[in-house]
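#struct-pred
JK: can someone run the complex with flavin-adenine dinucleotide? inputs below
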Amino acid sequence: MSAALLQALREAVGPAQVLTHEDPAADLAAWEQDWRKRAHGRALAVVRPGSTAEVASVVRACAAAGTSIVPQGGNTGLVVGSVPDESGTQVLLSLTRLNAVRAIDPANLTMTVEAGCVLQTLQDAAEKAGFLLPLSLAAEGSCTIGGNLATNAGGTQVVRYGNARELCLGLEVVTAQGEVWQGLTGLRKDNTGYDLRDLFIGSEGTLGVITAATLKLYPLPAAQLTAWAAVPTLDAAVSLLGLAHQHLGAGLTGFEVMGQFALGLVDRHFPALRVPLWQDSPYCVLLENSDSESEEHARSQFERLLETAFERGLVSDAVVAESLAQARALWHIRESIPLAQAEEGLNIKHDISIPVSRIPAFCAETDALLQREIPGVRLVNFGHLGDGNLHYNVQAPAGADAKKFLNEQEAHVNALVFDTVARYDGSISAEHGVGSLKASHLPHYKDPVALGLMRAIKQALDPQHLMNPGRVLARP
Ligand code: FAD
Ligand code: ZN
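RT: done, structure tokens with the ligand placed:
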């Protein structure tokens, strides 16, 4: 059976684009291992189509053979959703050869691009045309727009521009039956029935394969300024966010929070980065102001905001970057937290969202709960406060064996954190998705009616359960 399927796949995309373990020279590890190295699967084949028509042929061949498909873009996902399982029976469908920018429409403020385009190349293409594509995350040098849409990625500019969903006007999708849905509309208004685009966005490859998308573009800001502020409490950080919304309006394009322990790890493992103002403050905040007028205007707005914040006791100290290089250096510190944390040792990661107003109470309660249950536990708390999204990560007590900690405590810590998240009306996955890692948690934390509707949609669109099975919805 698999010989016939492999033959059909070779006919669909050309023999050079079907890689298997039968070829002793082929090394499939890059496609089979996830970014966090939490899973190493084994694929029947890695298939690399070069066009939408070829994707459709591959899906039809797999559907006829009853073989499941795992779509993959840049393989930077953090929830084990883009690699095959260990059965050796799944086809890994790599989208990276679909990498053309099909069109830029300046008057409509849109660009139409193929799913395998690397995010950073799209940011660059938009900028070359005089526009901003405002999706930005630390993996942008290798993640693909197809993966960004499949996971509804967030990142650092959501507070102003929304997540990937809000930047997408239309999609082209290969269905689980191998048909092509041509939904590449550049319309901002279209009320002709159910929103299929929003169904595929965030579906993590479980309903179909995204092959292209039409994205919104924005004018490039005239100036962009970054400030770093030390705040006395998380409550103060939340009040500062409200004040920043008031003072900067649509200019507020970034608002990140970083806990003292998280910044201390950057200081310890990357001392050359020179983390400012962290030693005397429980939290620091990174703010970005994108201004459509001028740098002077942006600077005076920032000054007024910080003055008011000082007067109200919301900020104890602050620096405003004097140059683009300084601004980049401040963002680099923020983006180095996950790397510093990895240097410190394995840890239990959470990507949660809570209504912004309730974040201080949530953190106080969960911090205390974890300290009581696991004395000495260390909390690497940072994230996109402007979106109510925290990467609330839990590190072993100093000197403890991190691997043992992960093995013994992960389930316990997850339950403590997720139960508190649920009590605060939050979500257990704000931006990374569900994948395999959180699929078993969903039945505990998702509304049962919503879960039933999700299962019905899966059954209707993918009745053979061949599209990325076991991801999002655990296998029955
Ligand atoms: P992959 O990892 O290849 O796939 C992710 C999922 O999408 C899988 O389920 C896969 O099956 C599916 N998929 C991929 N392409 C398609 C397609 N064309 N059609 C259908 N399904 C598809 N995420 C954030 O949201 N915000 C962040 O700030 C952020 N920061 C990160 C920082 C680092 C250093 C790293 C490593 C990751 C970060 N991530 C972040 C997570 C990750 O980068 C994003 O989820 C990204 O959108 C995944 O894109 P990808 O192309 O790598 O997708
Ligand atoms: Zn994030």
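RT: quick notes.
Residues 115 and 145 are 5 Å apart (CA to CA).
The first strand starts at residue 18 and ends at 19.
JK: thanks, will look after standup
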